[in-house]
Specification:
The protein is built from ten helices and nine strands. The chain is an alpha/beta fold and 258 residues long. The chain is globular and about 50 Å long. The model has no long low-confidence stretch (mean pLDDT 92).
Length: 258
């Protein structure tokens, strides 16, 4: 492990929210967060994709003007900015992530979480992290890392299954420093055990799923996560992230004073 990402530790991260997670939304809802995850953005030539139109780009589209505007807007939250992408073609995903970097993104993220048939039938989406696709996962990770310079976040699907933890270890071995684990209910015993496993594999673990207050967040951090992610709770309360972040900081200060 090479980087402990201390500036993110014990913090709150606004997760990707397709249909919501543009720069304007992040600026409004992510005050107090350490990172906002913009997207997830789709880059694909397929037609009739059932997904919010703002988050769909055709290959070679005008990513630059969009990201210049929305990354600048997202920064008004006071958080660092990550851009999450998924596509059928690796070269198109790389093109978008490189453009996001050039427009000021602090992190880039590969979505291997989607259950959209458009991707699962190609062995992508959450199936990219299935055991039979480990070589392809390694190729995607290696080529993205070769083309980019910002820390890469992998968001896999169904990480509570043992074979998925084993599979995503390939990403860590290939140089991915951060995993973003959506665990359904992140404070359930099985999820807590998985967070502990992932923390032994990756430099940094972001974990979320069903976190609605300080108690769940504390359990996730104590299990080995470096930061907690929230999504729906942020939509429901514009002040949620700020309040949760404040409570986590108070706990850290209290522990350091002991």
């Amino acid at each position: 492990m090479t980087d402990n990402f201390d500036d993110l530790r014990n913090s709150v991260i606004l997760s990707e929210l397709g249909g919501y997670g543009n720069g304007i939304f992040c600026a409004q809802y992510a005050k107090g967060a350490s990172v906002v995850m913009m997207g997830t953005y789709i880059i694909d030539s397929a037609r009739n994709i059932h997904y919010p139109p703002e988050f769909i780009f055709r290959p070679g589209g005008n990513y630059r003007s969009y990201f210049e505007a929305h990354i600048k807007e997202a920064r008004l939250s006071g958080a660092k900015v990550a851009v999450s992408a998924i596509g059928s073609e690796l070269k198109d995903v790389i093109d978008m992530l490189v453009t996001a970097e050039q427009c000021g993104a602090d992190f880039i993220s590969l979505c291997a979480h989607s259950a959209m048939e458009l991707y699962t039938k190609q062995g992508l989406g959450y199936k990219l992290c299935m055991p039979e696709n480990r070589d392809n996962l390694k190729r995607w990770i290696s080529e993205i890392l070769s083309a980019t310079s910002k820390p890469l976040i992998l968001k896999p699907g169904s990480v509570w299954h043992d074979y998925i933890v084993e599979s995503v270890s390939i990403a860590a071995q290939s140089g991915t420093p951060i995993v973003h684990a959506n665990l359904g209910l992140a404070f359930e015993p099985e999820a807590i055990a998985t967070i502990g496993e992932l923390s032994q594999i990756f430099d940094f673990v972001i974990a979320g799923g069903g976190i609605t207050g300080i108690d769940g967040a504390k359990e996730v951090l104590e299990a080995g996560a470096g930061a907690v992610s929230v999504a729906k709770a942020a939509i429901q309360d514009v002040h949620f992230i700020e309040q949760l972040g404040r409570e986590l900081k108070e706990i850290v200060i209290s522990k350091s004073a002991q």
